[in-house]
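Researcher: Re-running this chain for the archive, since the previous output was lost when a drive failed. Same request as before.
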Amino acid sequence: MGRLRRGALAATLIMFTVLLSGPPAVADSSRCTLSGCAGQARWVSYGEHLHVDDRLADGHSAVAVYWLEGGTGPFHVWNPNGNGSSVDHNLELGEGTWIYYYVCLGEYGLRMVLTSTCSSGVTDYA
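Model: Regenerated structure tokens:
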């Protein structure tokens, strides 16, 4: 009878641990530029893709600015292709590696980021 109680107690503890732990973490995120999401950056951890979307015909390009684990950066991913377009930047990062990024509007020809339009930053993982 003692073994049966210990087995039931162990099964109950495992069940509570699983229920309390919640769903597995998904390392996907996105950020929008200030004032209406004219530019959007989306991080997809599976395959390590940073997508940069231009979502408004405003004459500006969308640009994601990012740093990688170890503090390397900043790097830029520009989307100068106009409203409704998306650029897919495929990184090759090790599992669990972090990326910190934000998105802004900019002038592609001058490679000038309009810092007053930038979103807040986010850290995500491969």
